[in-house]
Structure formats: C-alpha cells, structure tokens
Amino acid sequence: MSRREPAWRVTTRELESSLEAERGEGDRAATYLLSPFGTRANRVVLAGTLSPAEPVGRTDPPSFWRARLSDPLGAVAVTAGSFQPGAMAQLRAASAGRPAIVVGKTHLYRGADGVAYVSVRAEAIRSVAEADERAVLAEILRHTLDRLDLLDRLKHEPATDEEALRAEGIPSLWVRAAHASLERYPEVDRAAFRRELRAGVERVAGTRLPSPAPTAPPGSVTIVRDPGPGAPPTRSAADRAEESAFLDLVDLAAEVSVDGYADLKEVLLLVAQRGGTSARAEELLTRLEESGALEEPIVGKLRRP
User: Fold this and answer.
1) What domain count does the chain have?
2) Per-residue pLDDT reduced to its tens digit, 87-116
3) Separation CA 159–CA 218 (nearest Å)
C-alpha cells in the first residue's frame, strides 16, 4: 500500500520558479516538482484568491475546468476534471473571485521550446473567510522561511549531519529536498526571493510595512544556467507566468472554436476582458511564435504545434 504524499506549503512564486521535475522509483511512482527554494513536492497547499473557473474542452456538460489562484507573490493555474468531482464542483461553484485554500498535485508542462509551465491539479478546494486565508498564508510563509534558513545553512555547512537536523525537528523530507535544490539550482538568488516574501507578510498583517532600502526590482529571482552554444536565454518566472496565461487563453479560444484553431480576434478580446492590451498581446504572440510554442498556419488562426 503506497503512502500518501505530504502536501508542501508553498507560494505561487515558488511554483512559478520551478523548472525541474523528477520521478520516484517503482511502476506507479509519483512525479515530483523540484523548486529552487527547498521543496520536492508531489502535492501542495496554496492560499489566495481563486478566480472564476472556465470550462476547457468541447464536452457537454464540460468535464474539465480551469481557474487561477493568486497570492501576493504571483498566480498559478488550478485545474480539476471529472476524475475529482468534488474539486471540480468547488472550482466552478463561484462566479466571482473569492479567498480559497487549494490542495492538489503539481504538474509541469514543458513546451516544444523547452519552457516550463506549472499548474496544480486540484484534489480539494475550500472557499474560506479572508481571515482563514491569511492564517494559512502565514503558515505557508513560515514554512517557506524555515526552508530558506535550512538552505542557507546547508550551503555554508554542507557536511551537516541529517541526524542532527532531525534531532532539531527538521523533517528528513526537507533535508533531502534542500540538498536536491542546492544541486539542481546552484546559482539561484534566494536572498531576492526572501525579499519578495515581504508582500506576503504585508498581506497577513493587513498593512504595508516600512519600505526597505532599494534592492533589485520585483521579479529578480531568476535561474542562472549555462545555456550552451546558441541556446535561448532563460526566461524569468514572471515572463513564463505571463506566457502561460496567454497560452491558457489560446487554448480556451481553440476549444470552443469549430475548426480547432484559436481565432486571433477572439484571443485579443479575451486579453482585453482581463485588463490586457493588444500591444502586449502582440508582443507575447511574437515571442511564443519565435520560441515555437505557438504557430499561425492560417492568417489570424493560432494553434499549438
């Protein structure tokens, strides 16, 4: 009998920054998302504002729904289908954004250009009062800061014994995940991510904290890698999140179309409905076409390769 995977408390920013996945051992092994900030997660807990869900697909009634969960640090796609009827019912239950807690499994999709997009397949969703959302966010921030402290310690004291850490109350799962994060993301600026957590602290406190001394601008957490000859530069997590949101709209337009293509005018209308501009949409379209994530085989008609 397999043991249920523990759910890691994470921010959307941590998920957005995750580029690596690995599979466990065995025929029915779980897949894990490895983050730069000390998680090796098959399941996660998120707290934030859940947007109204949109159906995906052509079945009637729709058997798959998608929404976005936003917290003070970013946003991530949340999906649910008929295989999780309770989560799907909760996902589609509201017509307006509302505070919510989401528990689900991580999913990493890598496009033809190698760009990674993270989503969460919901197992359970609960609409909560704002105070409860803040309380869970506070727990998420505490776990995140504790993991960052562990990463700093292991980076400067790599020979620290796991038994000694366990004796201090640090879970073995955290220790192994921290070692893996340091190995797979050796050049990540974790101090910048720690500064970004300030937005979450302000949300929990319900007030703005005094401004710190000027630092790097938001979105400065980047994965620094040797791209190799001719390889494209690594996109920031913010860029990937914006591209992912645009691709979601392309998928939505394609799913409801007669010919299976996303009509460019319909995509631009969806972008405008969400507060975006046509100019920015064109920039994203150009970037995604150049990277191979989108193509326009017919003028005005988009599809994924």
Assistant:
1) 2
2) 999 998 888 899 999 999 998 887 666 777
3) 34
